[in-house]
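Possible regression after last week's pipeline update?

I re-ran a chain I had predicted before the update to compare outputs. Posting the input and the new output here so someone can diff against the archived version. Not blocking, just want to make sure nothing changed silently.
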Amino acid sequence: MTRRAGPDDICAMCDEFSLRGADPAKPGTGVCQVAETGRPLRHIEWNGRTCVSFRLDRPNIEKRRQYVAQQNAKDTR
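New output (post-update):
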């Protein structure tokens, strides 16, 4: 049985997603802190599809939902 993707199943909700070190020339991107040995961190879209390393950042879930709401508002302009 597979689980359907929910509204929290995006990269911005993962505890490995961070805005620190993100490319300022690419608004709406963040850094995925899951990296293989010797490889740089990956720049990803905030609303990207989750990977196998996805872990919902429960302690900061409200802050992350606020960030997602801000990004959604920017996308609808």
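Follow-up from reviewer: compared with the archived run. The chain has a mean pLDDT of 85. Marking as no regression found.
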